[in-house]
Amino acid sequence: MSSKTSHAPDRADPGLANPGPVNDAAITVENLSKRYEIHHQRASGEGLRHVFESAIRAPIRWLRSRRNALGPGNEAFWALRDVSFALKPGDFVTHIDHGVGKFAGLETIDVNGKPQEAVRPPWDGGWIWKKDEQGNPWMSVACQGLGASVWYPCKDHQSDEPDNGASLSITIDSSLVAVGNGRLKEKKSNDGTATWTWEVKDPINNYNIIPYIGKYVTWHEDYNGEKGNLDCDYWVLDYDLEKAKKQFTQVDDMLKCFEYWMGPYPFHEDGYKLVETPHLGMEHQSAVAYGNKFMNGYLGRDLSGSGWGNNWDYIIVHESGHEWFANNITSNDIADMWIHEGITDYSETLFVQCKSGKDAANAYTQGLRRTIRNDKPIIGPYGVNQEGSGDMYNKGNNIMHMVRQVIDNDSTFRNILRGLNETFYHKTVDSKDIENYIIKRSGKDLSKLFDQYLRTTQVPALEYKIEGEKLLYRWTNCISGFNMPVKLANPDQWLSPGTDWKETRLTAAMKNDFQVDNNFYITVKKVE
Ligand SMILES: [Zn+2]
What's the rounded Cα separation, in Å, for the pair 105 and 95? Predict the structure, then answer.
């Protein structure tokens, strides 16, 4: 079943402005579809499936003549297909609970109650009420995970984004500055207050729609990007201006590297922004939250321990990397959030490579392994709003790194990253969409690699033994059929192990100093 709805109110009101009717508002629905597949399994008896089947099939038996064959005994049909309509005030509607009536138009509603405050942002959600070092109000919101409905009414699900963007109007004391996503459309002065209206034209995750309020100052820079001139705007607290101007020169290097590896900056229409925040950071689309205190590393630390993570600003790089993976390509279900965090984590490795070369990049990824816990699978349970393991970050990075090793051709790997951003431009996807795309474009059978590392916690072991003039090898501690090819560091050659023993001719190098390429996240075990 697929459905796509688009609501186009006159304004996305966070509930802070005055309530009132929005008289001429309409709802438009585009490409609404509903498709059923019925899989016959009569042997299972009169179970829930049978009841469900009967209920669906009875009123629509006439549709069966149009059914498509799905294979022996199965059928599929569309109950609705690409239906589009617009609803205007006065139109008749049927409400599933309340029967027939007239659509009266959209209404702006007043949201009452106590706003929820975030206790530990950005890791929990809600409003952040802080003061800057000079005692001025400094406010924002963080709501990834908990969801945007913590502070404004919305359809709180990652799988659906407003197709035509959103706008945000923030009314504050006129001594303060309000920043939002996208571009400043209007600033209106009222009596002692000012209303700042910001507008995003591109689709946006609703957890990314965020107000920032404080004593901000700004400056602008042009970046000569793949789609032409990209507007880069920076908003920082007045007393941090000099530090920020120095630190944010890293944005040029980041954009150059990321456009090279992942394709054009995906929100050209809305521009690129960094906004200083009281919390560490978040990937708020076209208004990235920055709270790394103008230090390199992750608040000064190198997460990889390799020495290659502390000569660049982690938050500028990581949160901006999300513009490609999280904001451009969004997972439908947070169970698949490794698409956001794992691939963005790998953008850090790519940045290290742009800055310090490929050996440094390899060392960075290898260093990140020290944080992997293998406590539970990276992909969480579907349909229950639950993330998988925190390993989605650094193990996710290592998965992408191994995919790159197996592809063994950096120009193909780069074309895949760019192709993903082109094919799934401004779309929501499942992990399988990403996996299948990589498999198809690379021509490599990576399905077991993905299953092993995304869906189990086992770290495969390469077992080997020497028998006379032969080297025997196989995978253990892995799923059935695990078949990842692996490269040796000494001698320089590939092995294609399966879960049964295979053999190859033993060379002197193997005999004296058998070594596996450390770019593979595996264990190696010599057995007798
Ligand atoms: Zn992230």
Answer: 14
DSSP letter at 464? E
d(CA 330, CA 346): 16
> Structure tokens of 145?
């995970």
Query: Measured in angstroms, how far is the CA atom of residue 482 from the centroid of ligand 1?
Result: 29
The Å distance, Cα 82 to ligand 1 centre, comes to 35
pLDDT of residue 88: 85
Identify whether the C-beta of residue 279 lies closer than 8 Å to the C-beta of residue 290. no
HSE-CB at 321 with a 13 A cutoff on CA atoms is 25
State residue 1's pLDDT score: 32
pLDDT value of position 69: 43
Q: How far is the CA of 429 from the centre of ligand 1 (A)?
A: 17
Segments in the chain below pLDDT 70: 1-26, 28-77, 79
C-alpha–C-alpha distance, residues 479 and 497, integer Å: 13
CA of 403 to the centre of ligand 1 (A): 20
**Could you tell me the distance, in angstroms and rounded to a whole number, from the CA of residue 358 to the centre of ligand 1?**
23
Cα(393) to ligand 1 centroid in Å equals 8
The model scores a pTM over 0.70: yes
The answer to whether 465 touches 526, Cβ cutoff 8 Å, is: yes
pLDDT of residue 62: 46
Task: Output the CA 161–ligand 1 centroid distance in Å.
Answer: 19
CA of 205 from ligand 1 middle (Å) equals 14
Domains and CATH numbers, the chain: 3-14+27-294 (no CATH), 320-455 (1.10.390.10), 461-526 (no CATH)
CA of 318 to the centre of ligand 1 (A): 6
Q: Are 2 and 33 in contact (CB under 8 A)?
A: yes
Q: Which residue in this structure is represented by tokens 């189990």?
A: 456
Residue 413 near residue 362, CB atoms below 8 Å: no
Containing H/E element for 348?
A: helix 338-356
Contact by Cβ (8 Å): 400, 385: no
Strand bridging mode 166-173 / 193-200: antiparallel
- CB distance 130 to 278 below 8 Å: yes
Compute CA distances 119 → 16, 111, 185, 392, whole Å. Answer: 22, 22, 32, 24
Q: How far apart are CA 37 and CA 73, in angstroms?
A: 11
Distance 83 CA to ligand 1 centre (A): 37
